[in-house]
Design goal:
The chain is an alpha+beta fold and 202 residues long. It contains seven helices and eight strands. The strands form three sheets. Strands 3-4-6-5 form a four-stranded antiparallel sheet, with helices on one face. The chain has a two-stranded antiparallel ribbon with strand order 1-2. It is extended.
Length: 202
């Protein structure tokens, strides 16, 4: 594969000779071009991404729902407790005599994948085909952090922290749990508009 030119050659990527290219660097460069050339902010980028996967943000907006408000989320400790309560994969590993925790989220839900890109910046994509037709697209994001920096790895300790939360912190906890493993279904009719959000831990 030779050169890939994006937006009139402003971003050129050489993919040959074993060159290593960090996805984050490419994403940051593209985001910078979108800001400079088109004046897009995070909300506009979010809306265009949703449109790309077939979601009409204007339909939700008619009912007072702003799908891209998540770009303003504050990812503090309480929020990550909610993430840890969801479908989170935790594995202890040793690297250079240090103990680390590998934390991963994966999904086959396109909506979840949008949230993951904000939380855990290293994507891995797996595609499956059945009878020559694509059936599943799974997206995984992961981080590796020192064990003593991740207080949510021990489930019993996590539950103790959750039990000690103040009432004002509970919405952030729920937001993290929903973002970590949720499905959203909506049905808008003239008489009974409804939105169903389901979050579970398996």
């Amino acid at each position: 594969m030779g050169k890939i030119w994006i937006i009139g050659g402003s971003l050129s990527v050489i993919l040959s000779g074993g060159s290593k290219i960090r996805r984050n660097d490419i994403v940051e460069h593209v985001e910078g071009l979108l800001r400079e050339r088109f004046g897009w902010d995070e909300v506009k980028m979010c809306e265009e991404l949703l449109h790309f996967i077939g979601i009409d943000t204007e339909t939700f907006r008619k009912y007072g729902i702003e799908l891209c408000d998540w770009v303003y989320v504050q990812t503090d400790d309480v929020y990550f407790m909610g993430i840890a309560l969801s479908d989170l994969y935790v594995k202890f590993v040793k690297i250079n005599k240090n103990k680390y925790v590998k934390v991963a989220l994966d999904t086959t839900n396109a909506i979840d994948a949008i949230f993951f890109s904000l939380l855990l910046k290293k994507p891995s994509i797996t595609m499956s085909w059945i009878n020559r037709e694509m059936s599943i697209v799974a997206v995984e994001y992961y981080i590796v952090t020192k064990a003593n920096k991740w207080g949510c790895a021990n489930h019993e300790e996590l539950i103790r922290h959750v039990s000690a939360l103040e009432p004002m912190d509970v919405p952030k906890l729920i937001a993290g749990a929903v973002d970590g493993d949720s499905s959203i279904k909506y049905k808008f009719t003239a008489s009974t508009p409804s939105i169903e959000i389901t979050a579970c831990r398996t």
